[in-house]
Design a protein that fits this description.
Layout lengths: L1 E5 L7 H12 L4 E6 L12 H13 L5 H17 L4 H15 L6 H9 L1 H16 L4 E3 L2 H4 L16 H5 L8 E5 L2 E3 L5 E3 L5 H11 L4 E6 L4 E2 L11 E2 L1 E3 H9 L10 H7 L3 E5 L8 E4 L11 E14 L9 H11 L4 E3 L6 E7 L5 H14 L4 E14 L9 H11 L6 E4 L5 E7 L3 H13 L1
Bound molecules: aspartic acid.
Length: 449
């Protein structure tokens, strides 16, 4: 049995949905299908999820939201008509959207989640309707009945362990099951969504729950590339990559697959295939537990900005038991997740995302570090990017760090930070955000051309 997930760009129009249904029905083992909400039809278009967020925002700021909702109805109406579905199908969607808008908006984040989930939910209904119209046995699956139970964190939910046992029963369902991605229900029955892009997570959870032979993730690119094609011209495609390589690259900006989506399939050891809906014959990229490294130690180069680092130094820090814990305790008290904490003999840097470190918080954190830890020096640097060189071959190859730093030096890039060895499969460089394109290009040239 295969679990196949189709992203919003694969479901943006009736014609694309027809291609999706051709792909689904071309392999009898594709029995569990996850759909996103219709995405953009052209570059300036708006995703249905964003239209729904605008509806929720309007309603929460004392507008009716009716005008905004009309745009969502139009998108779904166009799709239903293009698929030749009977009027009842679109009536059902319109009724569902009106019901959601009519719900009590007192709890803003729960109301927003209920609106946001309408994109996936109605898309799943229409896909199931269309498959049946084409003569296939297909069923819409209600995530509540199926047992997709999530933590009570609107917009940022995580799956609860108990879901897996219940969801496993989907194995026994006859025909094609069409499951809406992106949302589930809390234990107390409230609708909650995953973070944005979370249909990938739904697909991975279902693949693990039913113990699928393969999790296929259909998107709009032929494969994962060794570097961002907007930065490097014609980067090489990646045929095979391990979970941990993919995890590191997704962390650092490879957006093909949501970075939380690998966890369920990683634990279950289920291979993932990234495929292109518009070119399903292309081999795609396969994500697996182990791969033959061959003579290319590096599989990809990624970069992501928006970080800041706090540098703390104190003479004889190494002798002071508990210094690191007390420093990180300040971050914990302020609810700032720290991303990395490289350290030296008498110094330690804490890297965090700038979105969690606004200037008001910065002032408080620095004051506490100075007074409570009696630091000799505390400085902050903003506008940092992390550049990652990733590959399973990294742990065995000699001289890779020298090659990487040599390439960066050749491009006149100043290194703000270097972290090698903490991870067996990556090297991480902190550079100024403005230096990212040059850094990525120089590393790509070094390792791939
Ligand atoms: N539709 C949701 C979003 O735009 C979830 C997804 O597409 O995976 O974020």
């Amino acid at each position: 049995m295969k679990t196949a997930k189709f992203g919003g760009s694969s479901l943006a129009s009736a014609d694309l949905i027809k291609s999706v249904c051709d792909i689904i029905t071309s392999a009898p083992e594709r029995r569990l299908v996850v759909v996103s909400a219709p995405g953009k039809r052209f570059a300036e278009d708006t995703k249905v999820t964003d239209l729904l967020i605008a509806v929720a925002e309007a309603r929460l700021t004392n507008h009716s939201g009716v005008v905004e909702l009309e745009r969502v109805k139009e998108r779904f109406g166009e799709i239903a008509n293009g698929l030749g579905l009977p009027p009842e199908s679109i009536q059902m969607v319109r009724g569902d959207l009106d019901d959601r808008l009519g719900q009590d908006p007192a709890n803003g984040s729960l109301f927003t989640d209920t609106m946001k989930a309408a994109g996936e939910d109605n898309c799943a209904h229409l896909v199931a309707d269309y498959l049946r119209q084409c003569g296939h046995e297909a069923h819409y699956i209600d995530p509540r009945e199926a047992g997709m139970t999530l933590s009570d964190e609107p917009g940022n939910a995580r799956v609860l362990r108990q879901s897996y046992g219940k969801l496993r029963q989907l194995r026994e369902r006859p025909g094609i099951s069409v499951f809406p991605g992106f949302f589930g229900y809390s234990e107390s029955g409230k609708l909650v969504t995953f973070p944005r892009g979370g249909s990938d997570i739904t697909g991975a959870i279902l693949a693990a729950a039913v113990d699928a032979d393969l999790y296929e993730n259909f998107t709009d690119v032929d494969s994962v590339f060794t570097a961002n094609p907007n930065v490097v011209d014609n980067p090489k495609p990646v045929a095979e990559i391990t979970y941990r390589e993919m995890r590191e690259l997704s962390y650092a900006g490879f957006s093909v697959l949501h970075d939380e989506a690998l966890e369920p399939v990683f634990h279950a050891g289920i291979p993932v295939e990234i495929k292109n809906t518009k070119n399903p014959q292309a081999p795609g990229t396969r994500i697996v537990r182990e791969r033959e490294v061959g003579d290319l130690p590096v599989v990809g180069i990624a970069a992501t900005g928006g970080f800041c680092t706090v540098y703390v130094s104190r003479y004889l820090m190494n002798r002071e038991v508990g210094f690191g814990r007390r420093l990180l305790q300040i971050y914990e008290d302020e609810a700032i997740p720290f991303e990395h904490a490289p350290s030296g003999i008498d110094n330690m840097s804490v890297v965090a995302r700038e979105e969690f470190f606004p200037h008001a918080v910065e002032e408080r954190v620095l004051r506490r570090i100075r007074t409570e830890l009696e630091a000799d020096e505390v400085t902050v640097e903003r506008g940092l990017a992390l550049v990652m060189v990733v590959g399973e071959g990294m742990q065995y190859a000699i001289g890779l760090a020298a090659r990487a730093t040599g390439a960066l030096a050749g491009a006149a890039i100043n290194l703000e930070m270097l972290n090698q060895g903490s991870s067996e499969v990556s090297m991480m460089f902190g550079v100024k955000e403005v230096d990212v394109p040059a850094a990525v290009r120089s590393l790509y040239d070094e390792f791939f051309t």
